[in-house]
Every structure is written in C-alpha cells, then in structure tokens.
C-alpha cells in the first residue's frame, strides 16, 4: 500500500509525545459523538416542530431568500479555470467508464462507495494525475461532533506551487435535510452530482447551502442541528487526512477479485444522476447563449440611443 499523511504541526508534536494517541490524533470514542449529539438534539427539541408546522411550500420571505441563494450557487457550482474544467470533464468520462466488475472489496464492513473511489483514483493516476483517496478524521469540539469522511483529491503542480482539488462523488448527500421546502429541494438538485474543484470554491458552496438549510428549517419552525453547521461540513474536507493510492490489504475481507455487490447500485445511481445532469446542461446551453445575445443587443441599442 502506498500512502502519505498530512497532520498539522501541533498534532504531529502531540503524537510523538504520546504513544497512546493513534495516528490520527483521534479517539475512537469520538466516533459516537455524532450519534450521541443527534440523540440529545432530538430529545431536547422534541415537540418544537409539530406536524401542524410542517410545510413543503415556501413562505414569501423564505422563497425570496432561497432564490437569492440559488443565484449565487449557480455561479459557484461551475469549475473555474481551464485545469478545473478539463479535470471535471475527465472525471465525468472516467465515472462512466467504471463497470460493476471493476468494484472490488477494499475493506471489511460497510464500503460506503470506497471501491468506486479507489477505481476512480486508479483511472486518474493512469491518466497522469496525482490522485488519491483521502480519509479524514476529526475530534469533536464544542458543538461540532467528531467524525470521518472519505473523498478524492488531485494535486496540481504549477510553477513550483501545488494546489489540491477536491473530488466528492456523492456531493448532494451532504446537504439532505428533513421536511425541505420546495425551493430547497430545487437548490439541492442544482448542485453538481460530483464536485470537482478547489477548497476555496467548496467553502463558498458550503456556506450557501448552510444558509439555505437554515432558511428551509426556519420556515418549518424546525431547529438548526449542529451537524448541519458550517464548521461540521468544513471538517470533512479541512481536517487532517491520509492519502492512499491503494486500499489497505489487511482490511480487505473475502476475495479481492470479487465484485463488491453492495456498491453496484450506488454506481448505477451515480452514473444515471450524472448523465441526467449533463443532459440538462446541454439543453440549457442554447437558452444561455440566447440570453447572452439578447443582453448584448440591448446594450448596443442603449449605446446607440446615448449617441
């Protein structure tokens, strides 16, 4: 197995001075933080949003807020710069090229699409990209529960500098909420199926989706849970992480050549959702071109009138 580890300097120092702290600086007890917090949250807020307060339609003020956020999301969701655009196109093509026979057992227990990530990383590396599966973990702090997350990164080296680009193959799932109003559902479906981009653009999208979730929950008189906070969402991609190019062999159970049936359905849904997204974008392109032409014509007419 090939891997590399990124740990902040203070964490590295703590690890070297205490053999009882594991590689991540992460206590296994914190794996239960989120479950306990959810349980406490539900108990403390029981009855705060009764059945009569639920609604799927938007209030006037809430609708206006979400429309404003939707406009911003439509701007930030697209790749920026030629490298991001090219990488996004490559990722889409490679996702479609993965077949169910490519999905092998990569670890014991629930896979959670790890086999798809490792398959995609393998194809990206064969295409010349410095790609890896990143496993992040963080301890709970204050109202932010501890947890872990797995995603892909690609390191772009340019003129002596490097930049990490994030690939998350199940991006929309991070923002699913209960009893969402109609406009929130439309915003959620407008997000990219697979996020490909910088941490900076990712942070902007996270902030917008937190605001959108807060607005939707408020319209239904529902409290805002801590695991929907910006701090918790950011922890998934900003926490210390370990880069892996191949799975840990000692964590693999069963025949490594066997198809991982658990993720076959996930792969089919991923490819279907991505196909629908790309087809919708193709249909919208002529509309966007016509709108741009109208804006240019209007601007020219106004310019001539001014003369």
Task: Describe this structure as you would to a colleague.
The protein has 307 residues and is α+β, with helices and mostly antiparallel strands. It has one domain (3-17, 66-306). The chain has nine helices and six strands; from the N terminus they run E-H-H-H-H-H-E-E-E-H-E-H-H-E-H. A six-stranded antiparallel β-sheet has the order 1-6-2-3-4-5.
Question: Which descriptors would you attach to this protein?
Answer:
307 residues, alpha+beta, 6 strands, 49% helix, 13% strand, disordered C terminus
Describe the protein's topology.
Elements: E1 3-6, H1 9-17, H2 33-44, H3 60-76, H4 81-97, H5 114-126, E2 130-138, E3 147-158, E4 161-168, H6 182-190, E5 195-198, H7 199-219, H8 230-238, E6 241-244, H9 264-306
Antiparallel strand pairs: 1-6, 2-3, 2-6, 3-4, 4-5
Helix pairs in contact: 3-6, 3-7, 6-7, 7-8
User: What does the average pLDDT come to?
Assistant: 77
Large-scale geometry: globular
Biggest beta sheet summary: 6 strands, antiparallel
Q: How many structural domains does the protein architecture include?
A: 1
| Spatial gap, N to C terminus | 70 Å
**Overall SS class:** alpha+beta
Strand content: 5-15%
Oligomer: single chain
Put simply, the count of helices is 9
Helicity, as a percent range: 40-55%
Please give the radius of gyration in angstroms: 22 Å
Low-confidence stretches: 7-32, 34-44, 46-54, 255-259, 302-307
**Can you count the beta strands?**
6
Topology pattern, helix = H, strand = E:
EHHHHHEEEHEHHEH
Instruction: Order the strands across the largest sheet as they lie in space.
Output: 1-6-2-3-4-5
């Amino acid at each position: 197995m090939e891997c590399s580890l990124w740990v902040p300097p203070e964490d590295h120092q703590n690890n070297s001075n205490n053999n009882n702290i594991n590689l991540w600086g992460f206590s296994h007890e914190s794996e239960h933080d989120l479950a306990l917090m959810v349980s406490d949250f539900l108990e403390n807020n029981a009855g705060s949003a009764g059945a009569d307060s639920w609604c799927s339609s938007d209030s006037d003020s809430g609708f206006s807020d979400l429309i404003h956020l939707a406009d911003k999301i439509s701007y930030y969701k697209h790749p920026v710069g030629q490298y991001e655009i090219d990488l996004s196109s490559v990722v889409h093509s490679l996702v479609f090229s993965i077949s169910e026979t490519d999905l092998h057992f990569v670890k014991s227990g629930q896979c959670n699409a790890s086999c798809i990530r490792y398959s995609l990383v393998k194809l990206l590396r064969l295409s010349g990209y410095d790609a890896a599966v990143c496993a992040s973990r963080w301890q709970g702090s204050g109202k932010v529960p501890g947890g872990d997350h797995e995603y892909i990164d690609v390191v772009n080296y340019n003129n002596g500098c490097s930049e990490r680009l994030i690939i998350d193959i199940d991006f929309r799932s991070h923002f699913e909420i209960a009893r969402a109003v109609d406009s929130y559902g439309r915003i959620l479906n407008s997000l990219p199926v697979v996020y490909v981009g910088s941490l900076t653009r990712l942070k902007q999208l996270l902030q917008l989706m937190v605001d959108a979730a807060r607005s939707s929950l408020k319209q239904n008189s529902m409290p805002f849970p801590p695991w929907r906070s910006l701090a918790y969402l950011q922890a998934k991609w900003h926490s210390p992480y370990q880069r892996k190019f191949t799975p840990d062999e000692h964590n693999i159970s069963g025949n490594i050549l066997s198809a991982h049936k658990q993720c076959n359905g996930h792969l089919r849904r991923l490819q279907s959702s991505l196909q629908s997204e790309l087809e919708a974008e193709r249909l919208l392109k002529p509309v966007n071109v016509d709108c741009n032409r109208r804006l240019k014509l209007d601007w020219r007419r106004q310019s001539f009138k001014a003369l």
